[in-house]
Amino acid sequence: MNQPLDDAALDQLFREARTYNGYHDKPVTVEQLHAIWDLMKMGPTSANMLPARMVWCHSQEAKQRLADCAGEGNKDKIVKAPAAVVIGMDQNFHEYLPELFPHTDAKSWFDEDPEGRVEGAMRNSSLQGAYFILAARAIGLDTGPMSGFDNTAADNAFFGDQPNVKSNFISTLGYGDPSTIFDRSPRPDFDKFNTII
Amino acid sequence: MNQPLDDAALDQLFREARTYNGYHDKPVTVEQLHAIWDLMKMGPTSANMLPARMVWCHSQEAKQRLADCAGEGNKDKIVKAPAAVVIGMDQNFHEYLPELFPHTDAKSWFDEDPEGRVEGAMRNSSLQGAYFILAARAIGLDTGPMSGFDNTAADNAFFGDQPNVKSNFISTLGYGDPSTIFDRSPRPDFDKFNTII
Lengths: 197, 197
Fold this sequence. Notes:
Chain A is an alpha+beta fold and 197 residues long.
């Protein structure tokens, strides 16, 4: 049985971690992007469907392309960040299930269920988006996840050749600059949104 | 700037962690449920909307009530687990935004946008579901997340008095018994579902 992680790890993952608006001038490497994937891919998804499709914007041109899809308040954050990412979701993820979930015919559960695929892609790529955030923190990076962008524009800009893939959310990535954050928004006590029965 | 967590922590959170079908006969305490919430609530959600509504099934009666909503293969896992949880999502989360995101009028973004609320609740309660999984692992517990249940039955059984709250997914919780898991499903290399531009 596992023991609780130490306080420093819990602080780094959850308690002291923040959503950053700006980053130190220190690059994010390709090796770090691979390290994030190698952790986040281990997180559970329903039937191991792994619907997330990650487009890492590492070049200035790619960050600019993403910024062009973002809301006014977010453009500058993206072009100035060391890296950014589009978390896409493949609504035809079921095509991969014979490979990803080989011990049963899970593809057949979804073949005739396009609505179930849309819902499964959304739920499970969001789980993977959270795994991305925590995996980045676990390797010492910080993130700035955002929903403030034009999904249709991002779909066209990044998944134009894959109409089955839609953008879910986006994030910046780097070593967070504490001078770019505000006070943390309130986090409610257990009793507000939890019930034990 | 943070350093990467040590290998033992990365193993516990991602690499060695598994979805369990059964658990050791060791209780999950109310204090642990609070500890999970106190970590998971720190994870980011869009505009700090925190739409997840957690119903922790700690009593045998509550686990049975959840099992009655579950698919055949999942009922036994639920009644035998030390605890289970329903991760619900409040599609009227915007009512809380004046309190949770006090520095701007975020409630008005959603007042006339019921579709945006449904989507925001799904995306962000799924993020919180992933934070739940990783927070549980971080305090030394294991989980068994599942989508195999009747959402309408669960909505009626657990949120019958709150038509604005819908079930997202469910999970068991405890100290995982390694004899109850199978080989891990394949996890693809970076190049399969990632692009760097």
